[in-house]
Each structure stands twice: as structure tokens, then as C-alpha cells.
Amino acid sequence: MGFNIESLFDQYGYEVLFLGLLLEFIALPFPGETTMLYAGYLSYTGVLHGWTALIWAFTGTTIGMTVTYFIGLKAGMPFIERFGKWVLITPSKLEKTKKWFDRYGNVLVFIGYFIPGVRHVTGYFAGIIGSPFRTFAAYAYGGALFWCVCFIGLGHAFGPQWEKVLHAIEHHSWKLAVAIVLLIAVIWLVRRLIVSSRRKARS
């Protein structure tokens, strides 16, 4: 297994969950799902305590997301204003994106944990567009708790079969991503239809 998760847990225990998940959101390519599934398996065997593992995982995840939010808030917009034109990010495009994020971004922050690559950028982006911290925290921390409970819970529930669960998730993760995109598209379309019907009713 890449990263040798077993060896890391043997040496550092719960700290693997905290530091690994924290650093994953900032920069380190760390296998968060694998680590939590294995931690769940270790709780199944009695090596780790499940609730303690959940607390360490949740704390590392939320701190990592919070750090990315404030990096985006403090450094993101100045960077985009200076270099955005070189990557075709114009002020008008940024404003449109901000309006989209105000409507649907919070849902993406919550469910983005389950989409590889997405969870690593939502915190930065929320900070860049100036999303209110309380709103961001509510969705980010709620999503983090749900994510950690799911993977540690699955590892505990399936015990020795945890690697088969991991392979199944990796094999079908693209289907989840497609389903989420379609769900967001449907929500957007329904809202457009409702707004359009209300305008017609007034006229």
C-alpha cells in the first residue's frame, strides 16, 4: 500500500489522522480516505478507539479547511487581481463565479469532501471570493464531520474487508462526481424555472 499507512499508525497512532488530514488540505498529497478507512478497521480490531479517531480526524480536517479559507481570503484576491489576466480570469468572470458560489457554493463545500481534488480547493475559493466565515464554517465543518463519520464508520463496519470498500469507492468515485454535478445542474434549472414563472405571473 502506498504511503505505508500501517507503519505510520504503528509509529504515530492518532497523530497520523490529525497531521495527515490537516496537511492534505494545505499541500500534501495524503490519502485521506485510505487513512480513515484503515483507522476504522483499527477501531474494529480494538487497536484504536473509534470516537477518539473520529475526533482527531475531524479536528485535522477542519483546521486544514480553515487555514485554506484564510489563505484564500488574505492572499487569493490580490494574487488574482495581479496575475488573473494571464490565466484568463477577468473581473467580470470572477464576479459571475462569485454570484454562482453565493447560490450553490456552500453545497459544494459540504459535499466536495467526497470528490477527489474538489475538497482541496473549495476552502481557498471560498476565501478568495469573500464568503462569510460563519456560513463557510457551518457547511465546511458539517461536511467534514459527515465525511469523517462515513469513512471511519465504513472501516469499522466492514473490518477486514476495508480494502475492498476502498477499491469500490475508487472505482465508482467518478459516478458520484457526475451525480453531484447533475444534481447541482437540476437545482439551478429548477430555480431558473421558478424565477421565470414568477416573473411571468407578475407581468
- Strand percentage, roughly? under 5%
Shape: globular
Number of strands: 0
User: Sheet with the most strands?
Assistant: none
Please give a quick description of this structure:
With 203 residues, this protein is mainly alpha-helical.
Looking at this protein, list some descriptive labels.
203 residues; mainly alpha; 80% helix; globular; DedA family protein
Report on the structure:
- By secondary structure, the chain is mainly α.
- The protein has one domain (5-173).
- It contains eight helices and no strands.
- Helix 2 runs parallel beside helix 4 (50-83) and helix 4 (50-83) crosses helix 7.
- The radius of gyration is 19 Å and the shape is globular.
